[in-house]
Amino acid sequence: MVKTILKQVKEYKLPSILTPLCMIGEVICEMIIPILMAKIVDDGIGVNNPNGGDMGIILRVGGMMLIIAILGLLAGLGGAYYGSMASTGLAKNLRKSMFDNIQTFSFANIDKFSTSGLVTRLTTDVTNIQNAYMMTLRMAMRAPASLIIAMVAAFTISARLASIYLVAVAFLAVLMVIIMNRATKYFKQVFEKYDELNESVQENVSAIRVVKAYVREDYENKKFKKAAFNIYNMFVRAEKNLVMISPVMSATVYTCILLISWFGAHMIVGGELSTGGLMSLLTYCMSILMNLMMLGMIFVMLTMASASGKRIAEVIEEKATITNKENPVMEVADGSISFDHVEFAYDEDCEQPVLKDITLEIKSGETIGIIGGTGSAKSSLVNLISRLYDVTQGAVKVGGIDVRDYDIETLRDQVSVVLQKNVLFSGTILDNLRWGDKNATEEECRRACQMACADEFIEKMPNGYNTEIEQGGTNVSGGQRQRLCIARALLKKPKILILDDSTSAVDTSTDAKIRKAFAEEIPGTTKLIIAQRISSVQGCDRIIVMDDGKVNGFGTHDELLKSNDIYREVYESQTGASGDADFDQLS
Ligand SMILES: Nc1ncnc2c1ncn2[C@@H]1O[C@H](COP(=O)(O)OP(=O)(O)OP(=O)(O)O)[C@@H](O)[C@H]1O
Ligand SMILES: [Mg+2]
């Protein structure tokens, strides 16, 4: 995991090395200052000197102090500058790698991570790593270095007095390990709670209209409050442990100062220690204990970051389940489709496959209707054709070649699917249409819209084809959105066009117009039309009746009326007196 994360440092290696170097420079400067200070007090002011003070020494040493202080400041600035550069650079690379890898994910990969989980990983988790990396670069070297230097310096001044520090450090170290251990336990749980929070926000915001329609604001509010409160709770619990550190630190620091002052004063009287020496010791006291605390903080940050790191590494390391074969086929010969004893399950461990033993032959240019109750696996069936999922057993062939042998882009360019859950993106109508073909001229876009019966309403819009679509396509109606999605799919000029319940929100006469346009304008394209209304598929060359993951019937409208019970019953209920019955009311 650490390796995966550190690999992403890439072009920021130099700042990553310069940061600790600068910090060590700063520490060295900081540590020299108390020594110079002692010299000014002892020799310059002349506390220990019977001949009195020496202004020359004060000026000379004071000048040196100034230079060293400036050097220290510069090193500190350098550390901060390079540290920010390295850590923000790492964050940028992590986000980019995750995002790039997510783009290669197949539907199966996406099913594995929840969307909110991915959002947390791209945002909060990366920020954690960024902070921890910055802190580590700047402090991981600095804190131990200054701890050691201060300790050595203190021992050279007076080994006897400095041993007080050893006791204090040992005491604090043990105490801190205990406290931090308890705190990290809570920090680790925080991230799962973040997922919950993001899920609540995401679901609510993207479905705010449904929430309002069902007057579920109160419930959603409560859900959000609970998720936010859980995070608050975890942090409070963790911090409750951490707050103990500050008073314990202060108590230890002041005890040390008291002890050092007490014993130091005695030693000065006895002539064993200089006043300057005592002053330096007191400065080192602060430095040693502060740095110890800093180390503890780094420890907490790293444990928090390791939880985030694992979650990020999971995304970066996730292998796309659908990839190109070596030497893939780059050309789709025609629009014929065949299913050869296909079995498919979303979850490999699942006992009951969603599709069972499907064998079908569809000729190039045929128009095929697919009909069946909800959950009868119509969408699952067609999703196999453009390889949105891979079969578990058997093979799906397009143009006589197994879909797994094609270059994925080539295949998907030729198999255009209007998904059941389709969305538009923010941008103008033209932008959205050009997802189908980025080089399409405005004229071509207009043609596609005419075929999909989208031209009428687009022309009525204030800016026509340049009307802005809002995020998620909320400013067009359901039927309008479906028609735009069909136009978008048509622009690909595919050999196979699949419409998954894509005219469900379109009125019957427009639906008929679209089908007529298809028959006239793109006769060579194989068309698969999933629908709930028999009228939508009645005119197709052949119709597949799906039932519970199996093909129940496959033939023309007339053949099915004679031979297929399910089909006949639905037909009678939809055309007969009972009106609008559908599949689900039959069983
Ligand atoms: N992404 C998924 N992960 C796991 N199971 C799924 C997934 N999508 C669908 N299923 C399951 O597969 C079965 C078939 O679903 P499918 O969407 O193919 O039905 P459908 O015939 O298209 O239904 P509808 O008419 O409602 O669109 C259902 O039982 C469903 O629960
Ligand atoms: Mg479906």
Question: Ranges with pLDDT <50 over ≥5 residues?
Answer: none
- CATH homologous superfamily placement of the largest domain: ABC transporter type 1, transmembrane domain
**Could you tell me the mean pLDDT?**
87
Number of domains: 2
Give the helix tally: 20
Q: Which cofactor or ligand species appear?
A: adenosine-5'-triphosphate, magnesium ion
Could you give the order of strands across the largest sheet?
A: 6-9-10-3-11-12
The biggest beta sheet is recorded as: 6 strands, mixed
CATH architectural designation of the largest domain: Up-down Bundle
Shape: elongated
Question: How does this structure look, described?
Answer:
- This protein is an alpha/beta fold and 587 residues long.
- It has two domains: 2-317, ABC transporter type 1, transmembrane domain (ABC transporter transmembrane region fold, Up-down Bundle), CATH 1.20.1560; 337-586, 3-Layer(aba) Sandwich (Rossmann fold), CATH 3.40.50.
- The chain has 20 helices and twelve strands.
- The strands form three sheets. Strands 6-9-10-3-11-12 form a six-stranded mixed β-sheet.
- Helix 6 (159-206) packs antiparallel against helix 9 (245-269).
- The chain starts with a helix and ends in a 12-residue tail after the last helix.
- It binds adenosine-5'-triphosphate (ATP) and magnesium ion.
- Magnesium ion (MG) is lined by residues 378-379, 420, 500-501.
